[in-house]
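SAMPLE LOG
Freezer: B-3
Tube label: C17
Construct: single chain, 118 aa
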Amino acid sequence: QVQVVESGGGLVQPGGSLRLSCAASGISFSLYFMGWYRQAPGKQREFVAIITSDGVANYADSMKGRFTISRDNAKNTVYLQMNSLKPEDTADYYCNALNQRNTRLNYWGQGTQVTVSS
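STRUCTURE (predicted):
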């Protein structure tokens, strides 16, 4: 059974930092692109960042320089370090696992809530 579980969300003040974690099980982790997406209230889900199995990362333009995605293949875990947070970063953050060779193997976590507010 595949499980993708996010953690690390919470309330943070503007300008603060948070580190999200996503642990995946039931998959061959090294064969998956791992990504983060977010969905703000009343808005569509949007891409945040993605990382390949060998560590090549790509970011949405609005996150470049503030967010860093990384992964630990030994721990089957992907991270999202978020710095200089803004109120507009408030959203539910979702982890995604996408098989590099078979895109039908596409798994989502339940999300973790991030609120940026003073």
